[in-house]
Amino acid sequence: MSTKNIEELEREFQAKIDADIKIEPNDWMPEAYRKTLMRQISQHAHSEIVGMLPEGNWITRAPSLKRKAVLLAKVQDEAGHGLYLYSAAETLGLDREKSIDDLHSGKAKYSSIFNYPTLSWADMGTIGWLVDGAAIMNQVPLCRCSYGPYARAMVRVCKEESFHQRQGFEIVSLLANGTPEQKQMVQDSLNRFWWPALMMFGPNDDNSPNSAQSIKWKIKRSSNDELRQQFIDVTVAQAEMVGLTIPDKDLKWNAETGHYDFGVINWEEFNQVIQGNGPCNKERIDARKNAKENGAWVREAANAFAEKRKKKELTH
Amino acid sequence: MTTQEAFYNYLVRLGDDSLILGQRLSEWCGHGPILEEDIALTNIALDLIGQTNNIYELAVSIENKGSNVDQLAFLRLEKEYTNVLLVEQPNVDFGYTIIRQFFFDVYRKLVFEALCNSSDERLAGIAEKSLKETKYHLKHSSEWVIRLGDGTEESHRRVQEAVNTLWKFTKELFFQDEVDQKVIELGLGIDTSLFIESWNQNVTNVFTQATLTIPSNSWQHEGGRKGTHTEHFGYLLSEMQYMQRAYPNMEW
Amino acid sequence: MSSKDWPLWEVFIRSKQGLSHKHVGSLRAADAQMAIDNARDVYTRRSEGISIWVIESKLVTASDPDESAEFFEPAESKIYRHPTFYNVPDGISHM
Predict the structure, then answer these.
(1) How does pLDDT run across A235-275, given as a tens digit for each residue?
(2) Which chains touch B (3+ CB pairs under 8 A)?
(3) Average pLDDT of every residue of chain C
(4) Residue range B192-208: mean pLDDT, rounded
(5) Could you tell me if residue C45 is inside a domain?
(6) Is residue B215 part of a domain?
(7) For chain C, which has fewer Cβ within 10 Å, the N-terminal or C-terminal residue?
(8) Is A69's CB within 8 Å of B49's CB?
(9) Which of A157, A301, B37, A148 is nearest to C27 (CA)?
(10) Which of C68, C72, C79, C94 should be substituted to probe chain A, the one whose Cβ sees the most A Cβ atoms within 10 Å?
């Protein structure tokens, strides 16, 4: 049996992480590391899947064939991202279907942003620009996270995500430079999505108790506030470039800090949305539940057929 | 009818089929029976929209009136769309969707195989590219027809019901009129009456493996090629055309 | 875990002639044919001329030449500590 005790194993584990050596599925790892990662990765996966819905519902109403095709491709990519992530979580012992059941019951969380409605075509641009933009900011550092399968999934995701943000900004730019109706549509869209996008980065650092340990384990590479500030600095410049106004009267460039000062986030709204009281939480979860229930007979049929085929093969 | 008019109408029919079917499949996004199948259906929808775009590009260049593909896709009136009735039928459930897809895929593969030899080089090129995609669509739908037909009692019942309901839209796949006569004469288009037996054989072959039967009542519905649609079509158009109608003459 | 869930498959792709197959991830499928079809959709995005291998995850045997293996696992083990790779007899609950 073991001549190493837990402390030694934990020391060696942390040393690996500090030396940027990747942790792979069968390596020893603290139970808390495994659990935290499973939760983080599955939450990320759930977000991709739920995220298909607010955009998916505009595919049938896309205003041109080209936009219809690009939106189809984007949403398909998101499904694929969900799959890569579930796949990474499975390597830690997660059961995908059980995790999905937790999503449906409210036990598992997903990104708050997807609980907001997509009310106009312009939202397709705004989501690509802001939501994918925020996601990229979070995901690029994760390409260097300590857990091998998650890091590799992130590399794959990031390759595809940059196309998403670019095509989103292309739509925003086109509308912002378009007819008065289109300008109004995209400004209205920005007004509705700006603050929820900022909330995507999570609570302030002093309200994020688990962040320090996650940073030590390199499954989180920057703090919430750092990423949020980075996002604001980059995005405000982009908005100015296309003549759109950020809906924050307190937004101001601070020459001393070299960053934008910005207004107070409505944390009550954030908490309510996370708890399930956002504009579309129920619709999103119902849609996912229905998909699973309505598909039960299909999955059972596929299983039954596979069994029959196996039996046939054995008797030949 | 001039050659140009006939060829234009012929191409629009080909493109309308994939436009409407692509539209129907897009409705599945986020609602598939399992994530992997969500990707598969969206993949097929994307291929079909891509085919539509290529076919419409050729059509508007033949028409030579300076139209663009979006005007063709979004601004015609209901009687001007000439897709077959099969493709506008609602998704209902995964079984109906797969049966509708299967009937269409067997047909579309035969059409593209033959169109690879069209006397119009551009159409032949489109057919060659689309054939690769269609072969994969047919593989996917055939496998599912068999899985569901020979799966559980419930799945068998559901897809047999779908077969019984959708069978009446299958003969229209082989509808031909003066438009087809004209393009067949010039080798631009193909005579689908030559494929009916092949289509039936392929369908029967898969149905046998799926333990499915072809309905005995062979009463058929048609009208799509002449612009007379089913009741579902109006709703589909309302959704598809909304943006172009509400915000006319804008760039997207 | 419901017995009705589709099994997990590992996917290997050769993206170009001359390269070897590379492990790219996993997916759920009811049978091998479906696994190949899904792998094509998920991991190749319609690319041409590639080769796909799929194998049920539970059929892969892993060896880890890492010192921890001696202490916690038999020398050859499953690739993941996944509950579904281990058959639990009927009637056993909470597992």
Answers:
(1) 999 999 999 999 999 999 999 999 999 999 999 999 999 99
(2) A, C
(3) 73
(4) 97
(5) yes
(6) yes
(7) C
(8) yes
(9) B37
(10) C68
Q: Is residue B142 part of a domain?
A: yes
Q: Is B37 in Cβ contact with A83 (below 8 Å)?
A: no
Q: Which residues of B touch C28 (CB under 8 A)?
A: 34-36
Cα distances (angstroms) measured from residue A167 to each of A134, A269, A294, C64:
15, 29, 33, 44
Over residues B36-77, the pLDDT tens digits come to: 999 999 999 999 999 999 999 999 999 999 999 999 999 999
pTM of the model: 0.93
Answer whether residue B226 shows pLDDT above 60: yes
Report in angstroms the alpha-carbon separations of A308 from B90, B146, B206, C29.
Answer: 31, 12, 17, 15
**Segments forming the whole domain that contains residue B228:** 3-246
Chain C residue with the nearest C-alpha to that of B138: C37
Q: Give me the interface pTM, i.e. the ipTM.
A: 0.97
The answer to whether residue B252 sits within a structural domain is no
Q: Is C38 on the interface with B (CB under 8 A)?
A: yes
Per the structure, how many domains does chain B have? 1
The minimal CB distance from A287 to the residues B30, B56, B73 is found for: B30
Which of chain B's residues have a Cβ under 8 Å away from the Cβ of C42?
36, 39
Residue C88 lies in a domain: no
Provide the chain B residues 115-144 that lie in CB contact (below 8 A) with chain A: none
- Within 10 angstroms of residue A86's Cβ, the number of other Cβ atoms is 29
Instruction: Examine residue C32 and state whether it is found in any structural domain, yes or no.
Output: yes
Do A120 and A185 form a contact (C-beta atoms < 8 A)? yes
List the structure tokens of A232.
């604001």
User: Does residue B186 lie within any of the structural domains?
Assistant: yes
